[in-house]
Amino acid sequence: MAVKPRPAPATAPVPAQAVPDASPQIALELLVHGVGGATPEQMLDDPRTVCVAGDDTAGIHRRARDADAERHPERYRDAPVPEAYCWSNLTSGDSSRALWLLLLPFMVANLAHWMRPPSARTRLARGYEVTVRILALTLTVLLVAAACEVALDIVAWQCAGHAGCSRGKSWLGFAAATRHGWWSQPGRRLALAASVPFALTALLWWLSHRTWYAYESQRPDVPSTPAPAQPAPGTPAMALPGFWYGRRSVAVLRAAHTSAGLLTVCAALTVPALRYDTGRPGLLLPVLGWTLAGVLAVFAVTACVVVARADRSESGLDDTSGPAVARVLLAGSTALPVAAVLYGAWSRPGWASHGRLPSTQAFSAITVGQGALIAVLAVAAVLLQRRRPPEFAGAPVAMHGLAGPAVALLGCVLGGVMSGGVAQRTADWLDRGGTPGRSGSPLTGPPAVLSWEASVIPAALLLILMVAAGALWRLRRRQAGLCAEVDAMYPGKRHDRSRTRRIAGVIARAGLTDSAPALVAVVGAAAFALGAGAVAGAWAGAGTPGEAARHAPAAVSALADTAQSLGSWLVGAGFVALVTVGRRAYRDTSARRTVGILWDVGTFWPRAAHPFAPPCYAERAVPDLTWRMATWTRATGGRIVLSGHSQGSVLSAAAVWQLEPATRSRVALLTYGCPLARLYGRWFPAHFAPTRLRDLHGDMRTWCNLWRRTDPIGGPVGVSPGAPVDVGPLLDPAAYGRDARHPLPEPVLGHSHFQADPAFAEQRAELLARLRRP
User: Fold this and answer.
1) What is the mean pLDDT of the chain?
2) Is the pLDDT of residue 24 over 50?
3) Quick one: DSSP state of residue 248?
4) What is the share, in percent, of the chain residues with pLDDT greater than 70?
5) What is the signed CA dihedral for 617, 623, 628, 629, rounded to 10 degrees?
6) pLDDT tops 60 at residue 543
7) Handedness of CA 737, 740, 744, 750 (dihedral sign)
């Protein structure tokens, strides 16, 4: 059972002068768990624990008998005091957080910012980052535009304006055109429906603002000597004091993206009314409409400029709220909806809704604009990769530096598919099972580009299944080739074919992680081709896939209708599956290990490109670890073994980078199941390339990394040949069959239970022996 937190004596360590003779001898083992999380009782292997610092979201725990260890250092001369930092509730907890998965495109776009290849060309690197931020802005516009398409176009304009669709829908009957009531005019129906995208934009702003204070507002440990305004060349960005404190940049981006969302809704209200007013008798409404459209255009350009200039200030802790233009932009954007609603709801008795709203061009423009930005991003990435600094030459980089553009492309495709699928599914639902756009249907349906994007979903899934089948075939071949190596790992044993194949299969599946760049490249190329085909089909003037195949043979026409309907159903099923898997991942530890790998990688990075992405847990966890190590070593003069597993090893390395040299000299790093080189070094080379890890090892006194071949996530760090860091590969399973020491079959541990290996205790003891007081 967990004991409630103790009062201040357990939270604040005893000052060094209270134990002047013995305090330098005390040592602390600070455990940091990884993906999947762990309870304090599991980490400390004791049912009675106390929380000595922090809260239920992230806290530091000890065994109850160790709560006052600093007062009795003589008890801990032979072993360190175990202490667990539990941060799992930063990424899990209540199952309602699974709704964050619906903002997956935003998180993916934010990842592209951190995948920039390393380069000394600051202008080109800044151009890469600006391009990613503008691309992220288009995703916000796409999401809000999709909400406008569903609420304003499909529901308020098409369905409420047609008697065949609004009949029998009591929730829509009061605004139906056949009622001839106050809400029956098209402009007023649109103004009412605009409350949905307005509320969505407000919700995104509120979530971003609230999660900043809950997760990312923790100030890092301020160095005793002020950091220079311009860091020295070659200084790792993660060693800068403001890296994990992006208050100003997030505030500026939040203001710009909120403004962009509000401006998108205002444009969706203004453009249809302005098209109707233009050429009609009277001068007042056209003048008001064009004036409002001009103001919207000026604000839109201003939002792009603000996003382009929202650079991160990492050399210091910037608590400012950003430039005044960002605040003025947000204030003006919150006032414009009132003007847009009043203008759109103005009485126009002769106005009737037919066809679609003029949104087809908007979605096509967004798709083409995203494609152009990705092309610019790819060119910048190639130039950066070709002109890497000498110290980064030869470092393994995923997709030869094109990982960022490929991931950004996947984010855009994911956003487009989700938008198109939701719009198509809504139209199919309102059409009572018919096919929108075909004869006999009361609905024209969503814009053609969205229908085409929904229709290519079955083809994309078929391609992914083909790639998965190829990967499975290669896995079987790899498993067969590893059997001889597995037998050689256990000499002198009586080998069993099934046992050997089982171990070889685990090693082969663990190696699939290294094939991720090829998979992303194939899926990205296919997504680009299918997306280009969708835009081309929409621009060809043929309408939806069903309309395009109207005069084709019956088989082709049926196939087009099937793809269009199946795509919309697949998106609906995808949303349900996404939320279901997310909720299960927050409740079930095994499911969280499966889903949480990519999720924890994505939310590890600060929100540098998209403020509406899920919050960054590292902006809370890294300052927590840094403050704990700095204050504890200053108060006790003791030594610390920072023990990180899996994602905890990444947090530990990031925290060590933030320490001052005097504190870092008292800290040893013990990592296991560590993805620093295998995943982060390849996908985020500017921050975790081998030269960065070598610098980290050079700045520390001791570092040891344990790894296994059966681990699908962790691997060797591979730095400092003269002073090896890696210990392994550890034998897994510990025994091939039954013997006197292992009377029961030993399981394959893979990514877990490193502390059960004898090498763990040996390396920890060696680190403590090598670590001396400076």
Assistant:
1) 81
2) no
3) H
4) 82
5) 110
6) no
7) negative
Strands (E), 55-105: 59-63, 81-86
**353-398 tens-digit pLDDT:** 877 788 767 888 888 899 999 999 999 999 998 888 877 777 788 8
> Residue 474 and residue 166: Cα distance in Å, rounded?
54
Residue 6 is predicted with a pLDDT of 40
Question: What span, in angstroms and rounded, lies between the C-alpha atoms of 340 and 266?
Answer: 6
Cα 568 to Cα 565: distance, rounded to the nearest angstrom: 5
Give backbone dihedrals phi and psi of 703, rounded to 5 degrees, phi first: -155, 130
Q: Residue 286 burial (CB < 10 Å; 0-12/13-18/19+)? A: middle
> Phi-psi bin for 46: left (phi > 0), alpha (psi -120 to 50), beta?
beta
- Cβ 570 vs Cβ 576: under 8 Å: no
**Beta-strand relationship, 59-63 and 726-727:** unpaired
CB atoms within 10 A of CB 320: 10
Is residue 674's pLDDT more than 70? Answer: yes
How does strand 59-63 pair with strand 81-86?
Answer: antiparallel
Highest mean pLDDT: which of 31-40, 94-103, 569-578, 664-673?
Answer: 664-673
Q: pTM for the complete prediction?
A: 0.86
- Pick 512 or 457 by higher pLDDT: 512
Neighbour-count burial for 696-715, b at 16+ CB within 10 Å, e otherwise:
bbebbbbbbbbbbbbbbbbb
Cα gap 174→180, rounded to integer Å:
9
Confidence of residue 23 (pLDDT cuts 50, 70, 90): very low
| Phi and psi at residue 645, to the nearest 5° | -110, 135
C-alpha to C-alpha distance for 328 and 472, rounded to whole angstroms: 55
Helix (H, G, I), strand (E, B) or coil at 605: coil
Contact 432, 498 (CB under 8 A): no
pLDDT of residue 597: 67
**Strand, helix or coil for residue 27:** strand
Query: Hey, is 392 helix, strand or coil?
Result: helix
Burial 466-497 (b: 16+ CB within 10 A, else e): eeeeeeeeebeebbeebbeebbebbeeeeeee
Q: What angle do CA 275, 277, 281 make, to 5 degrees?
A: 145
pLDDT digits (tens, 9 = 90+) for 717-744: 888 766 788 887 998 888 888 877 878 8
Find out whether 215 and 619 touch, Cβ atoms under 8 Å: yes
| Residue 580 to residue 101: CA distance in whole angstroms | 10
Q: Where are the domains of the chain?
A: 8-91+617-770, 104-185+352-616
Contact 185, 170 (CB under 8 A): no
Task: Give pLDDT tens digits for 608-641.
Answer: 999 998 888 898 899 999 999 999 988 888 889 9
Structure tokens at 65: 């008998």
C-alpha distance from residue 170 to each of 141, 166, 429 (Å): 31, 8, 15
Q: Which of 141, 126, 110, 129 is nearest to 267 (CA)?
A: 141
Residue 746 in tokens: 């030993």
For residue 53, list its beta bridge partners: 60
Closest CA relative to residue 197, chosen from 271, 272, 133, 140: 140
Would you say the C-alpha torsion 249, 250, 251, 255 has a positive or negative sign?
Answer: positive
Provide the total of helices (H) and of strands (E) in the chain, helices listed first: 27, 8
Q: Please name the amino acid found at residue 596.
A: G
- At a CB cut-off of 8 Å and minimum separation 6, what does 365 contact? none
For the segment 411-442, what is each residue's pLDDT rounded down to a tens digit?
A: 988 888 788 778 877 877 777 656 565 556 67
Among candidate residues 147, 118, 23, 124, the one with its CA nearest the CA of residue 77? 23
DSSP string, 627-661: HHHHHHHHHH--EEEEEEETHHHHHHHHHHHTS-H
Rounded to whole angstroms, the Cα distance separating 225 from 212 reads 27
C-alpha to C-alpha distance for 316 and 220, rounded to whole angstroms: 10
Does residue 3 have a pLDDT over 70?
Answer: no
Q: Is the peptide bond before 733 cis (omega within 30 degrees of 0)?
A: yes
